[in-house]
Write a structure and sequence with these properties.
Length: 408
Amino acid sequence: MMGEILFLAHRVPWPPNRGDKIRSHHFLQKLMDCAPVHVACFADDEQERQIGWDRKAELASCEIVVRNKPRWRAGIEALVSGKPVSLTSFENSEINAYVARVIATRPVDCIFVFSGQMAQYIPPDFDGRVVMDFADVDSAKFESYAGEGFGPMAWINRREGRLLSAFEKDVAARADHSLFVSEAEAALFRQRSGLSAGRVKAVGNGIDLEFYAARDVHPEGLKGEGPMILFTGQMDYQPNVQAVQSFSMEVMPEILARFPSARFAIVGRAPSEKVRQLDGQHGTVVVGAVDDIRSWIMAADVVVAPLRIARGIQNKVLEAMAMARPVVASTCAAEGINAINGEHFLIAESVEDEAQLVRDLLADPERARRLGEQAGILIQAQYSWETQLASLPALCGFSAAVVAEAAA
């Protein structure tokens, strides 16, 4: 008899409108095609908790809890308990009760955990399969923050990195498989955990190829202006904030010296105060949220991913490549993407490189067109979700015969 799956996620895995939710959304759908799935997750607010999804009725059960614990309280709980803030922020009695009830009353033989914060809900006495999708090595991200910071925040980030690293190792030792978004992240975690390639695997992100084909989408942009350089992303996320600050203040002056009418458009939800302050400086325009990001990608002359701290695979890069736009990415933003520098995108190793590579593409539209065209061909061939998630059912213990039966 086919068992059931308990799917734990730190955010509601629909709609797929930001990087982590895109990944969790497609993982969930793949697992729903294998077996009945119970979902426990958090919503940022009541509005998100109420958002519908056309496949929600297919779930075996679903528990969505609004996460409203203040950061100061999570910080105090972390100091008192000796836990990472990443865990205390997501501690919740309702989720605990739901997990216990589902495990006690349903034939769950696999727990799939999306994001390390949710691993605390794996019951210690659960004897079924556990698959942990870390996506990125989060502890390494906090170590990077600590290395770049100073004062109290550096201390907080060092503590978080150290405690989270120990927690990640304990979780991975318990899990049957630990998944990461790229082979680079998986290799780093194997080194840190001592676990083998059989236990720590890369399962990459894909792209909704039909959606990004954008046949019925019309380009949008900064009307009547010069060439448009585009950055997309969640704009209250620290690495994205750092990226656009650096590009606006350090790179754009060099570009404007050669292309005075160039504009740098920052497109994405929830721009922080630091991001909003960039508006009007060095050709920078803070657009904020838009109805359809594809229309802005289509209109861009160059898409940039100038991240200084990045882990895993950047969806923003895959999306731009899928739409055949020329991309200039920093070294860490390009990591994990199976593409060739100079053929499918351009990798900048420094701020000076970013300025030069963008200027070169703006000066040679034909080269930019070819670069984008080759990127689109690559994404079509390698980055469908079907291709990327082909191994997921087997990792969760489902044979090809079981998957075929469930789909019938």
